[in-house]
Design goal:
Shape: flat
Helix content: 25-40%
Structural class: alpha+beta
Length: 64
């Protein structure tokens, strides 16, 4: 049987800027929730969290 090696996990370094999750894909849907995965950093989170992140970024940009 041929096995596929796992994808490399990006290192988390303190000097790196946090990923802004520019590209996401839906990975799971439930009755109450939808989960997305960032195609850049591979983080998986609930889609409502993604919307909240976008709102917070917009607020910070407007305050500048």
């Amino acid at each position: 049987m041929n096995s596929i090696p796992p994808s490399p996990v990006p290192e988390k370094r303190s000097d790196m800027q946090p990923c802004k999750h520019p590209r996401v894909q839906i990975v799971s849907r439930d009755d109450d929730a939808e989960f997305v995965e960032c195609l850049e950093c591979r983080e998986v989170f609930e889609s409502s969290e993604f919307r909240d992140m976008t709102i917070e970024e917009t607020k910070l940009d407007n305050e500048s």
